[in-house]
Write a structure and sequence with these properties.
single chain; mainly alpha; elongated; about 0% strand; Helicase, Ruva Protein, domain 3; transmembrane helix; signal
Length: about 150
C-alpha cells in the first residue's frame, strides 16, 4: 500500500517539460539555462514557466535560451534578447521600473481615492439636515382622521 501511495505521489508531482534533446552537454550551461527558463513565462500557458510547460512555443523559447547561452551571452543578455523579441510580458516577475510603476501603484492609489470619496460622502451625509418632524396641516389631519374612522 505504501508503494502505491509513493508511486502516485511521484506521478502527481510537477515535472520539468525539458526534453532530452534540448539538454546541453555542459552541465554549467544547462543549469544556467534551467534557471533562466524558470523566470520566463510560457506565452501559451500564461502563468507557467517555459521550464514547466509542454507547449511547442515554450520548447522553442527553451531552445532559444540555450542557443543564446551557447553563443556566449550572459544571463542578462539572453533574457534581454527574449524580452526584446517577445515583450516584457514574457517575464514572470516584471521589473519595478518605468511604466510598471503606474501598474504597481494603481491598486493602492485607487484604494486611497475610493476611501477618500467614501469619507467625503459620509461626512456630507452627517452634515445634511435631517428630515424634520413637521406637523400635519389641518387639511391633512382631517383626511387622516377620516381614514382612521373607516
Amino acid at each position: 500500500m505504501k508503494r502505491i501511495a509513493l508511486i502516485l505521489m511521484l506521478l502527481a508531482s510537477p515535472l520539468a517539460a525539458v526534453q532530452p534533446d534540448e539538454v546541453l552537454d555542459d552541465p554549467a550551461l544547462e543549469a544556467r539555462a534551467r534557471e533562466l527558463s524558470k523566470g520566463l513565462r510560457c506565452l501559451v500557458c500564461r502563468n507557467e514557466s517555459i521550464d514547466e510547460s509542454n507547449a511547442s512555443l515554450a520548447r522553442d523559447l527553451r531552445i532559444l535560451v540555450r542557443d543564446r547561452l551557447l553563443a556566449g551571452d550572459t544571463d542578462a543578455e539572453a533574457v534581454a534578447f527574449i524580452v526584446d523579441r517577445y515583450g516584457e510580458y514574457v517575464l514572470l516577475k516584471p521589473d519595478n521600473s518605468g511604466a510598471n510603476w503606474l501598474l504597481w501603484g494603481a491598486g493602492p492609489l485607487m484604494l486611497l481615492l475610493a476611501g477618500g470619496a467614501g469619507m467625503i460622502y459620509l461626512r456630507g451625509r452627517s452634515k445634511a439636515a435631517a428630515p424634520g418632524d413637521t406637523p400635519l396641516s389641518a387639511e391633512e389631519q382631517a383626511r387622516l382622521d377620516d381614514i382612521l374612522k373607516e
